[in-house]
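task queued by scheduler; priority normal; single chain, no ligands, no partner chains; default sampling; output format set to structure tokens
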Amino acid sequence: MAFISIRGIEKTFVLGKTEVRALKGIDLEVHRGEYLSIMGPSGSGKSTLFNMIGALDAPSAGNIEVAGHRLNALTRRQLAYFRCKHIGYVFPSFNLIPAYDATDNVAMPLVFSGQTYQDACNRARTILSRVGLEHRLTHLPDELSGGQQQRVAIARALANQPAIILADEPTANLDLQTGGEIIALLKELSGETGTTVITTTHDHEMLAVSDRIVWIKDGQVDRVEKREDIAIKVGTVG
């Protein structure tokens, strides 16, 4: 049985008097522990699909089931709990709280989930050390490099030991070397914990570590390929 099952997903946005069909019937299955990359040009619907999987938006039609939870059937309160307990998010702009140091940024979702502040901080320090930031525990975001901020964001995503990490263009605002380090870190962490990683990306290095690549075109799945079935070079995909 698929860990994530997507059946007939459609999404229509109403913009004034205009309807825009962002998704036109997506069918997709994702396996537990898989590293999946979603590719597609701007406006293809890949970000909309990403948001559906992450329970950040609801489909206009179709069903999504994640880890045995049918998202369409959950209330707003239940969806909030589901997101907190089961999904970790990584965004291209890091989304760290400027007034919080690295430890508090990572501890925040743990406190929201019911842990004491002290226990949350202890857990946060452990995760930050795991991503190589044991020497930056008390630094504010503006005292960190872009790569270090993204490592804090990854640590925060891992805080509640989620079953799924959703990484939206995680290397978009990083230089080539730092982006490569972040990709390697995500792959390593996925392998260690069995966490399912789903990412939207244009970074061919990220495709190289993926188990499968889903190509989205005009609101539909154009094709799904295994990593070993495609040839990837820097600057090209063949």
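post-processing summary
- The mean pLDDT is 89.
- The radius of gyration is 18 Å.
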